[in-house]
Amino acid sequence: MLSQNMIDQLNHQINLEIYSSHLYLQMSSWCVHKALDGCALFLNQHADEEMMHMRRLLNYLHETGSLAVLGPVDAPPTQFHSVTELFEKIYAHEQVITQKINHLVHIANTEPDYSTLQFLQWYVAEQHQEEFLFKSVLDKIKLIGTDGQGMFFIDEEVKKLATTKAAKVASEAMPTPGE
Ligand code: FEO
Fold first, then answer.
1. pLDDT for res 144
2. What's the 127 CA to ligand 1 centre distance in angstroms?
3. Residue 16 in domain
4. Looking at the domain assignment, is residue 157 inside a domain?
């Protein structure tokens, strides 16, 4: 059984994950509008991942006999000056989410609530991967540059990331022999 404070904090995180999904879906739409199909695909996939993050939290609340509460979700920004700014915003947003997860871990550790502490370890690892992923996209943008045909090559590189990620998700969904 979770404390009311922990239930409230996990519900807050649910809303943040929904906001993250809306943010990336909105950014995907901006990319479609700018004919950046690779970036649009990548962000559309990532919007789905954020909803999966939300559902993990929702299921955990249900498993612990708690009520999930979906509150109002802020509207994401709709305009960006450049694809560089867009990915800088994503990287900054993910760093904020990492801080929120760290805060949840701190509460679970302090209460103590070892079940939630263990449950949150998946999010700790996931945030490490997400920060690494978006930092690598930013590094590619800086390396290639957005002048001339640079934007085309960046979009192609990001599309490769989307394809790789889709293949990874599909392989993880496949049962391994003997299962
Ligand atoms: Fe749910 Fe991108 O962190």
1. 95
2. 7
3. yes
4. yes
Which ligand 1 atom is the nearest neighbour of the CA of 130?
2
Whole-Å CA distances, 71 to 13, 18, 99:
11, 10, 21
Asked if the peptide bond before residue 112 counts as cis, ω within 30 degrees of 0, the response is yes
Number of domains in the chain: 1
Least confident of 14-18, 46-50, 92-96, 174-178: 174-178
pLDDT in tens, 112-150: 999 999 999 999 999 999 999 999 999 999 999 999 899
| Average pLDDT value over all residues in the chain | 94
- Distance (angstroms) between ligand 1 centre and the Cα of 130 equals 7
Tokens of 95: 């760093």
Question: Which domain does 89 fall in, by range?
Answer: 4-171
14 lines ligand 1 (CB under 6 A): no
Q: Tell whether ligand 1 has an atom less than 6 A from the beta carbon of residue 53.
A: yes
Position in ligand 1 atom list of the atom nearest CA 49: 1
Q: Is residue 177 part of a domain?
A: no
How many residues would you count in the chain? Answer: 179
Q: Quick check: is 44 in a domain?
A: yes
DSSP assignment letter at 140: H
Instruction: Return the CATH number at 75.
Output: 1.20.1260.10
